[in-house]
Amino acid sequence: MISPRRRLVAASILLVLEAVAFALLVTESVTDAIAAVGFTCVSLWVHVVLHECGHLVAAKLLRLPVIAVRIAPFTGWRSEVLVRHPAPSATALPLRMVLFYLGGPMANLGTATVLGIATALTSTPLTRLALLGAALVAALLGVVNLIPGKSPRSDGRNLLRWLLAPTATRAALRAGYYQEEVSRTLRTIARGEFDDDRLGDPVRDGNDPRLALAAFQRRWSTGHAQSTADFIADAERLAALARADSTDPMAAAAIGQVLTVQFGLWYLYAAVVNGSPVEHKEVLEISELAQLAFHVQPHMLSARVAVSLAHLLNQRPEHARSLLLDIRPGVDPPDLCSVALLLRAIAECYLGNHADADTLIRAAGGDYQQLTQVVAAIQAADPVPSLFALAPMADT
Questions:
Q1: In terms of pLDDT, which residue wins out, 56 or 4?
Q2: Phi and psi (nearest 5°) for 270?
Q3: What is the pTM of this model?
Q4: What is the sign of the dihedral through the CA atoms of 324, 325, 326 and 332?
Q5: How far is CA 318 from CA 228, 257, 299, 386, 390, in A?
Q6: pLDDT value of residue 36
Q7: Residue range 359-373: mean pLDDT, rounded
Q8: d(CA 313, CA 11)
């Protein structure tokens, strides 16, 4: 079976030969034909550079933070300009993102227009053919990039998202920022726990619970989990390892903390932001995992955060509050302190102590903006949102 890369190379060679044959008919000179086609092929690289420059200039003008610029059209790597999206609440965000994604294709189409005008003003057949070929390549590159593709980095796909569904796209962006905050919390909890050189990839291949946990975290944080179903399946395998009698209690505690924080924070987000309370059986599973951590290290802030999350989801704010009264900002990790303060603020909201919640939000600082907005949403809600869904009553 021929690989896709070999098919692409073969198709490219065939197109070059056809272009040479066409150029030969126009110029009636083998040398001129090869020169014209060579110029057109080289122009492809120039157009790729101009495409990315279009994105880069747009990003700078729109004040979008540039993360990386990669231009490598002939090495197999994708050429791209990566930007960090502004905060989901940023002013005129849909328009700014549309202009950013249009920057590359518009640079190509503008170049094609200039080359087309130059072609009309040129009388030499060889020059006219070379310029026309370069103009066609530029136009083709611009149009192709405007067509929505399957890649999440497709210009056309992102343009459609921001044009047709700006509200949903903002919501997805907000969820992405929230996951970054969840990942920061998990990294703080797991700091120093694992030896990265010993990690395997799939969780299912890990016999050591600690290595299985580390592989799970790495796959999820780097986006290697293939689907939500795979992620849930890996989490269930980890939970089974944590409950196993053969698992070291410290390893079980580490697994319990990570799974409780990962799922607990998302259940909280789903209930408050999306209006989708979690099923009570899921809350009970979260509580079981959190207790594994708490029994081993009851004085650790990470364990108390996990159990307080379980209490909040179980709508026991007074229990969550009692676990988070003793927060030591100068001793415990700063990120974990911020999360603990915000979880306590949620508990105070459910207890009706809004002034205390405001004080805790200020003490947490602004590093966890998405979680802070979750707290603010709870404060503004009347009545406060239910965090777990009650099971339907059986008919009697």
A1: 56
A2: -65, -40
A3: 0.76
A4: positive
A5: 33, 21, 18, 15, 20
A6: 64
A7: 92
A8: 58
